[in-house]
Write a structure and sequence with these properties.
Largest sheet: 7 strands, parallel
CATH class: Alpha Beta
Structural class: alpha/beta
Number of domains: 1
Strand order of the largest sheet: 3-2-1-4-5-6-7
Number of strands: 7
Helix content: 40-55%
Strand content: 5-15%
């Protein structure tokens, strides 16, 4: 370790500059999904070139096109996290096109909302293929790309259900929205992997953190569920269209340059009660 890494910089950097992602390349898995869209837009608005990736490239391209129409930089890539070949191909393509990757948001998730009595061992295994093994593939492959340059930020999108158990009463009458047991298992494991990778990649200048959001409201949600969930939070509401943006940019940018191995809860106080 050289002296430069031991001594903090004496340069006073303006706070706006610390939050800027200008010139950065960011990959967001599941980037056209409900949570991914907000994260992708936030990173693009902060100046990053955002690569929106999932198994459905058509969906990603449609969203990336809207981001570009708004005046920001976005691309689309087909990415199947259950395939080692697909992950390697995307890494090779990003390296060839951009020469680097600065930010990785592991946001993709496979979840089938069903109660435990209907969640078979086979369903559990399918969920783990993406939520656990796919996560590890992405962290390992893209983390190594970052490590080779001595800089980077990996953010794993976890969940409040990696910290606390679901309160099943909020789903009363809405079984189709309930939380399966494999989901919390994978998210809790994600938090530990975050800590492990923060220690492992730290010497290479790569930071690894997790972002654990609470429920994000959408127009298709039954009003009774929204009310039940909102009563369970300190702020009395679900997350809205801008509530993840600040946290996403913070963890991706130099504003969090001395933050690694941390789980940032953005849940309106759900886990405080």
């Amino acid at each position: 370790m050289n002296v430069r890494t031991l001594q903090p910089s004496g340069i006073d950097v303006p706070v706006r500059e610390l939050f800027s992602l200008e010139g950065r390349v960011a990959l967001v898995t599941g980037g056209a999904g409900r949570y991914g869209r907000q994260i992708s837009i936030a990173l693009a608005q902060a100046g990053a070139t955002v690569i929106v990736a999932s198994r459905c490239q058509e969906k990603c391209e449609a969203f990336a096109s809207k981001v570009r129409e708004a005046g920001w930089k976005a691309e689309a890539r087909a990415l199947d996290l259950t395939s080692e070949e697909s992950v390697n191909q995307v890494a090779t393509a990003i390296k060839a096109r951009s020469g680097k990757i600065d930010i990785l948001f592991n946001n993709a998730v496979a979840v089938r909302a069903e109660p435990m009595e209907e969640h078979s061992v086979e369903e559990w295994a399918l969920a783990m293929e993406c939520n656990s093994m796919g996560l590890y593939r992405a962290c390992r492959v893209f983390g190594e790309l970052m490590a080779s340059r001595g800089t980077g930020s990996i953010i794993n999108v976890a969940s409040i259900y990696g910290v606390v158990s679901p309160e099943f009463g909020i789903y009363d009458g809405h079984i189709e929205m309930t939380n399966p047991p494999s989901y919390g298992f994978a998210k809790a494991g994600m938090l530990q992997l975050t800590r492990y990778l923060a220690v492992y990649f730290g010497k290479f200048g790569v930071r690894v953190n997790s972002l654990s959001p609470g429920g994000l409201c959408s127009p298709d949600m039954p009003m009774q569920f929204v009310e039940n969930y909102s009563k369970r939070t300190s702020l009395g509401r679900m997350a809205g269209p801008n509530d993840l943006k600040g946290a996403a940019v913070f963890l991706a940018s130099d504003a969090s340059a001395y933050v690694t191995g941390h789980n940032l809860l953005v849940d309106g106080g759900y886990t405080a009660l």
